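Human: Here is a favour to ask of a fellow structure person. Comparing notes only helps if you start from a blank page. Give me a protein, with the fold worked out from its sequence. Please set it down just below, with no commentary around it:

Assistant:
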Amino acid sequence: MNSLTAHELHQLLLNKKVSSVEITEAVFKQIEKNEDKVKAYVSLTKEKALKNAEEADKRIRSGENIPPLCGIPIAIKDNMCTKGTRTTCSSKILNNYLPPYDATIVKKLDDLLAVPTGKTNLDEFAMGSSTENSGYFTTKNPWDLKTVPGGSSGGSAAATAADECILALGSDTGGSIRQPASFCGVVGLKPTYGLVSRYGLIAFASSLDQIGPITKDVTDAALLLNAIAGYDQKDSTSVNRPVPNYQNSLVNSADKLRIGLISDLMGKGIDEDVKKAIKTAARVFESMGAIVEEVSMPTFEYAVPTYYIIAPAEASSNLARFDGVKFGHRSKEAPDLINMYYNTRKEGFGSEVKRRIMIGTYVLSAGYYDAFYLKALKARTLIKQDFEKAFKRFDILISPTAPSVAFKIGEKANDPLSMYLSDIATIPVNLAGLPAISLPCGFSKGLPIGLQIIGDAFAEEKTLQAAFAYEQHTDWHKKRPKL
């Protein structure tokens, strides 16, 4: 049962062929079997999971109207607050932090009686592309345990691929849902900025972060987006607009769909096998009646440096709150207040988080603000304008999700620039605040390749339609790793 999708299990639950408790026990049996190899979870919440599963079964037996995620096991990335359950951001500075409240999306899922299996591993404070920056351990890619699962939502993607959950939530600041989805051969959707509440998401870069689904197919991504999307007064960046039923957009048609293939993401630095897979995907769309043309996005060459000024600047500000005073780790080696601050942050933060805090503090400092941060904001505007021009011609844009398949653990650990470039195709989307989905489109060296489909702002329906149509014409999403 743990290998099925949420929509398949929903039908079985409605027909009373299985119970939520049985599904939940199957998932935890899989976790018990494989977790020592995959290491997807920071903590498990079996007691809470079984409690929700029992409540879901009661609701199903009562004949009430049952929402699609009722009784379905879901993993939650460990940077989303869960009341009374340890929330660490995979950082030693929050090792024993128990939030006093639930994130909005956690509460929404709890109200639906979804079944929370546990909190998944990530790069510390979501800063990384491989989950090697976790303060606890490196998650392994279920397709090849010697390779990374991607990051920062590597735990959520690996848990989904390894059938250690049915669905998962990730967060995406510069590709942190889509890149691990690509590496692990699953579906990852980053919604439009403002569509999903960020209340209770422990911030990395507030103008970039978005919560979104990681699932086994596109239908599940639409179901989970239905559950978490919507206006939230508690989040000042939340957009107050009607939320459609995304399941209605799952139409198996791409006829006359105008598709732009981003040429700037098909050149230098992209593996040949990845390029071939994306070109083949373009031909699949053409066979369905879509019109595919190349489009150039010249400002994309500035996306990575722009991101690595804006994101660390925001991180420097956001992470200032972790000082050992109100919550989290506090150094015992502290003769006075200043040393307490210094030692707490020195002991609690890992090397990548320290690097980004220092970069962010530098670009915001007097004398450098105009030269770096202000210039990056202007470059961000130009990238957004490139997208606006493109969407006057095209309904959606396509590109590789990542320049390569999953790399070996340790391969890029000592080369930050090489690691940063692994998000070259995903970062522009976050800078512009647009929706994008990654779904499997091929293999290279036995590892999955991801196709990225990008939509205009709040055009999730068109994005999901294109992804669903492609998925119905291929079998890549049906392939599963053999652990």
User: Anything to note?
Assistant: Residues 301-376 form one domain. The chain has two domains: 6-257+395-478, 301-376. The chain has a mean pLDDT of 96.
